[in-house]
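Entry for the shared binder. Reason: the reviewer on the internal report wants the predicted structure included alongside the sequence.
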Amino acid sequence: MQTTVERLAPEKGGFTLEIPLLAGESVLTNGIETNGGTRVSAGFDSGADEFSWRSGLAHGDTLSVTAAEGKPWSEVWIFSVSPMWQIAMTGVPAVMPENLSAGNWTFEYFPRAGETLTLKISRPPAAKGGTLAIDNVGLYYDVGKRATNAILQFSYRSTRGDRHSVKLPAAARVTALTVDGQNIPARMEKGELPLALLPGAHRVQINWQSDEGTSLVTRLPAVDLEVPSSNIGTVVRIPSDRWVLYAGGRGIGPVILYWGELIVFFLLAVLLGRMRRAPLRGYEWLILGLGLSTFSWSALLLFAIWIFAMRWREVLAVEQLSARKFNLLQVALIILSLAAVASLVAAIPYGLLANPDMRIAGAGQQANQLSWFNDQAAGELPIPWVLSLSLWWYKAVILLWALWLAFALVRWLPIARKALSAGGFWRKTRRSAPLPPAPAVSET
């Protein structure tokens, strides 16, 4: 206990107060007089503003505090409770502490005279816990065509030195083991890597290789820390000559937006193909969009604007337009035609040379480097999987699409020629007749 008596009035002069002690309170501060062990004589001289002492209380399951009645002071009670104790308080309502940013929460009471606060004190039973805690884990896989390089990093806290084992893939060949940056000899024993844990906080890194490479479904081997862990990050790097189609796994990971966009486009292609006087059939919209979907939706949008503009030009009543407006319209449509055809032709080499854009979204995601995050794991770390194909399959599909597009343009260009020539291709603007010469004036 810390008891502090502060002077409010009178501002000058000396006086003495008899402050009663609580039941079981023992004063620990030297030089403090107690009258019979029940009261403290708090003496104030003319220049003193404060009087304080420290004391101890006998242990008990309950504690009652009552504000004094008929005394020339008011009381404030403040309790700071250790996390190892549980306190139930009844009798007086608490108020908000003045310092909310303090490290420990305090319960403050401003009782009226005669009010009593009762505290029931108990200690919760201890919860069973381990001696080892793994705070964060990083698992990195660099998958090649015929082999995989892996790195496991984790930070642990241990209350004692002990022996621990980490289960790695059976075919793993450990190439390096470091603890706090120091190289440690490592040797696998029946698929487990033994570790000598040290008390305190430390950082471990394990490097290994395996003969498993990329395949249609790349499933990475499991790693078991054999103890619960938290804040687990997993990164998988796929070779740049692979076409990532899909990825899955536990936790927060990559989202491939391409497939959702493709479903929306498929519905739009069906609707466009069923429109009255549609310039293209549904399957033509679908094939054209599939070829452009992995790198340029804008080229498809430009083509759609152009082909519908040609259909509109074909049925437009051009007789109502003046020659100047008609010629301006023809120039605009010719420029639009050149831009649309050029974008389609330029898409062919771009699709053959560039990698497909699958619109992989998420924090820290790239085309061939995918990452996942899990907040905790019981022992075995969550391992994702990746569905991918060789990039040559994509090149072959784009090549077939380019051949189809070449024949399709042969069919579509006459549509533009027919539309631009409907009602005439160009009109001559009429020039105003020249004014007659002024009559000659003779002077006499």
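Summary line for the report: DSSP finds five helices and 25 strands in the chain.
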